C-alpha cells in the first residue's frame, strides 16, 4: 500500500518497520509523513494531511491509532474522513477497525499508567459427568486451592524484541475455581487478572493451560479494562487436561485478519495453531483430540462379523470414487487389512472433540435421540416390535400405526426401546408416542395424510411431489424423445427406450410430442442409467426387487404435472405403463408409480441427500479447520455452516450407511447402496453445478435470462423448490458478496491469501482427491470467484440440504406414498402371480411394499431425521455473539437476517396464491420447507445454517 502525503510521515507505533509492513494496520499512529509515497503495510493506506506533533506512548502501547484528520482501517484501508481537533495537546485516540471508529475518552486513555485487565472466562459445565469425572471434579477443586490451576496468558499483537515473538503477559490463574466448585449451573464465569505494562500493546491471543484432571469447555473470554473497551475471544472449545494434552490452547480475539495482515506478535501462533489441528495421518484418534485428517471410506463394512458384510473401499479407487471422510485411524479388521475395524455397540466413534454435539439442556434432544437412533434405536426396534417380517395386510393396518400404534413386545416397564427413546422427550418433540399402559408405539400422522387422505393416489399429486415433495431436485425437462441411454450396450444389453409416441399420444392437449418438447411442457424423472447397472445385483437378493425407471410427465394448461408413461427396465427387458382406464390397468399403473417412488426414495436418500449434502461437505469442514486460522475472516464466516456436520456424518457411517445399517436394510438397493452413491459421484456430481441456478439450468428447468431478477427464468413458474430456493440463493449471494468485499478488494488480495489458496487446493485435491483432475473446478483468483464458491457452499449446506432433508417424514412417513423398499416386481400377464394380483390387488400391493418391520423402522428414522433440535441455528441467525468485532460485517449480517424475514413473508404469500397449484388448493400441502425459520421438532419447514441432522 501507499503512504502518501505532502508532509513528512513516520510510522511510530511499531517496534520495527517490519511489523508495520507485516500488517500492523490497526495499530498505526503517525507523526510525520514521508514526502513521497512510501510502500508500507500490506492492506493499508494512510493519508494524513497534518500529522499531529505528539503521539502518546499510550497510543503505541495500546494499539490504537492517532490521526489528525483521517482514520485508518485494516479492512477498508481508509475510512471516511473524521475531522479532529488540531490541538497537539489533546491527541485523540481511536480504535481502528472497519466501520465507524470508536473514540476513546481522555479518561479512558489513562496515559502513562499500567493497565489492570480482567479476563472473564465463561465455562460451560457438563450436565452428565461420569463417575470418574465426578471424582476428578472433587480432586480438581482441592488441587486448585493448592495451586494446580487453569492458567491464562495474554499475547500481544506486538513483538517482544527479546524473544522475537509476541509479548507475553504475566501468567494469571482462574482465581475463583475452587470457591465456585459447588455452583450448579450450565455456565460459570471465572476471572483472571493481569497487569499490563504500557508497552504491552493490544492483546490479540490468549493461551490456556489446564492443570486440572478434567477437560473444560471454554465458551468465550471477555477481556475488560482496556481503554478501547472489552475485547472478546470466541473459544467454544474443549481445553484438555495437561495430562491428556500438554500443549497450551490458543484462542485469538474476534478481530479478523487476512494472513498478510496478521499482527507480527501473532504470526507464529497463527501458523502453529493451524498446524496443531492437522495431525500426521498416523495413529488411532483418541476421543479428546482435535485432529482433522482425511481418510477413504474403508469403515463401512464389517467383514470380521460376516464376510457378507464386507464392503468395498470407497475413495482412492478410480472405479469407486468418493469424497474423503474425517480420519479415525482405527485398527484394520482381521479379515481385510484395507478395512477399518468396526466399533462395538456403545463405543464412541471419534470426531474431533469440538465437533461433538454439545451437551446441555437444549442440546439433549439432538444428542440423546440422534445418538440413540444410530446406536440403539434400530436394533431395539427389531427386538421390541411385535411384528417380525410379516407384511401389512391392508391400508387399514398402515393407518392404524397413526391411530392405534404398533404393539411392542416384552413390555415390563423397562422395555429396551423405551430406555432408548427417552420417552419424555420423544413424546413432546417427535410426536411419536409410546403408550406405556397399552404397550404401544404410536406414529404421528405424516403431512401427506393430513389434508387429503387420498391425495397420494392421484397422478397430479405424484407429479406435484417431484416439484415440491421430499426430493424436488431430480426432475428434468425432456429434451428429446424417446430418451437415450448413455450406458454401454455391450454390458447392459439393448438400452434403447421402449417409450413410443403412442404412449403419449392423445394426452398432450392437442400437441404433438415434438411440439410439447419445444414448448417446454414435457418432463422426465430418469433413473435409468443411474440404477440399471445395479438392478441384477439387487434382484437376486430375497425380498428386494427393483427396476430402473423413467417417468414422462406433461405440464397441463391447468397447471398440473401429470405422469403420462412409466418405463420400467430390467437388463434386456423393458415395460411401459400408462394410466389405466379399467380396473386392472389402473392398479398396474399404481404399482408402476410405487416402483418409481421407490427408485426416487432410494436415489434421494443415497445421492441427493447423503452424497450431495452430507458426504461432499465433510472435506470442506476438514480443510477449513486445517488451512484457515480461526482469525481468518472466512473461518469466522463459515463456522456456523459446518456446525455438527462431522458428528452427524460419523453417526451415519456408524449405523445408517454402514453394512447392514438402516439404509441397507430399509431401502431397496441394500448392500449396493453406497456403490450407487459412488457411481453418482463419479458421473453426476460437479461442484460448479451444485449452485442452484446452474443445477436448474443443467436439468433444463431454467434458462438464462438477464432480464429476470435471478438471471434465470424458470421453465415452470410454479416450481416451489426452485422459486423459493432462488429467494434464498439471492439472499445468500448478497450476504457473501458484502462480506467478501470487506476483506478482498482486488484479485491480488485473493491470490496473495496463502491460507485461502491452500484451503481451496486441499478441498479440490485432497478432500475430493478422486475429482482433482476435473476441469470444472472453479479457480479462486478473484473476489468474484471466491464469492461464487462460498455462495454455493452455503446454499448446499442450508437451502439444498433443508429441501432434501426435512420433508422426509411428511412424504416418506406413509410408505404407500413413498415405499422405501419394493419387494416384488410387477406381475406379468399369464403368470400365477398375475392371477394373485387380479384376485386381490390390494394384498399384492401390500406384498410389494416394505414389511411391517422395515416400514416402522424407516418411519422412526425419517421421523428423527426430519426433526429440528431446539437449539438449531437457522439462516440469518448466529448463536455466537461477538463472532466478529468488525461492525461492517455485523451490519451486513443484519441485512441478511432481515432479508430472511422478508422471504418468510413472500413464501407465506405464495402458499396462499390459488394460481400456484403445486402449493395451494383443495387439500394441497403448502410448500414451507424453505421458510427460513422453524420451531423445534418435525415442522416441515426451517432452513438450518448447517447439515446437522
Ligand atoms: Fe440430512
TrEMBL record:
Keywords in alphabetical order: Dioxygenase, Fatty acid biosynthesis, Fatty acid metabolism, Iron, Lipid biosynthesis, Lipid metabolism, Metal-binding, Oxidoreductase, Oxylipin biosynthesis
Transcription keyword on record: no
Cofactor: Fe cation
GO biological process, one term: lipid oxidation
Xref: SUPFAM superfamilies: Lipase/lipooxygenase domain (PLAT/LH2 domain) (SSF49723), Lipoxigenase (SSF48484)
Lipoxygenase domain span: 256-949
SMART domains per the UniProt record, alphabetical: LH2
Superkingdom in the source lineage: Eukaryota
A Pfam family this chain is assigned to: PLAT
Domain PLAT: 127-253
GO molecular function, one term: oxidoreductase activity, acting on single donors with incorporation of molecular oxygen, incorporation of two atoms of oxygen
Family: Belongs to the lipoxygenase family.
This protein's name: Lipoxygenase
